[in-house]
Design a protein that fits this description.
Number of strands: 9
Radius of gyration: 21 Å
Structural class: alpha+beta
Strand order of the largest sheet: 1-2-3-5-4
Shape: globular
Strand content: 15-25%
Mean pLDDT: 96
Largest sheet: 5 strands, antiparallel
Number of helices: 9
Low-confidence stretches: none
Helix content: 40-55%
Order of helices and strands: HEEEHEEHHHEEEEHHHH
Length: 330
Amino acid sequence: MNILPVINSTLSPDAIAVFVKNVYKLGAVVSARILKTGISHTYLIIDEDGQYVFRVYSLNWRTEKEIEEELRLLNLLKENRLPVSYPIADVQGGYIQPLVAPEGLRFGVMFSFAKGEKMLNMPAELHYKIGEIMANLHKVTQDTRLERVHYTADVLLTRSFEQLKQFLPADTEEMIYMQSLQKYLQEAFSAADTKKLRTGIVHLDIWFDNMSVSDSGDITLFDFDFCGNGWLLLDIAYYLLQLHSTEKDEHECLQKKDSFIKGYESVAIISEEEKRLLPAAGVSLYFFYLGVQCSRYNNWSNVFLNELYLRRFINLLVKKWADYHNFQIN
């Protein structure tokens, strides 16, 4: 019988339950179930004292050092009383668990459970609160660095576009448009007055899918997997981008956008140069996440990523955002 190598596996929830029970000295009865499989796999862990989330990073997705830096950021935010899901130490005081999977060495981390539910359409007052939380996060992370990726124009626009080329022919109308848009965005970034742009550590993925809202309106941020270094305005831009894509009523969208900005500026001022760059920075993150989807085709995006999906994404999201902000694309 031939035993073939594996490129991606899903570890048994029952085995994970036994593992975390011993490593973290949980209660007598521990259960685990899969919350989500994707770039990384997340398991809901339950014992008699509470709930946790155990994340298993995919093979070669993050280095051990990159994970250490993510956890260092989370502990810093926790120390500063930011509402985030934070790492849980094992009985030895460590955070990262090496796991020997069929495809190779993977890493696992236990996180505190973010109580509440995901909320797609939030009232304006919650957007105000999220603005406050983001600004307080930026106050902690401004002028600091992680030993992780620096989100430059090259990372956001050039490398991601190279990934996209593998899945969408160069002569399609959408790819011709993306090529022109890429040039427009690169020029916009090059012309930025960087002295007026705050830099530091960014989350890069703050939107409704990465936060829980409790019945009392408390918000907890989680999934800092894409944290790195860059202009702080990237977090603001991405949030506004997602707000625009999820809110179908323009009046409500503008109201909630204004509420979010007011919440943010009740803590920290957004410079006029940062505000000017928000539309361009936002659409650059569409480039980036399209690149991520393409790069992780083998173990995540293959269930939905095809030429039709990419054409629709570009026309219904990317182009719609650019047109909304009157980008002058040649």
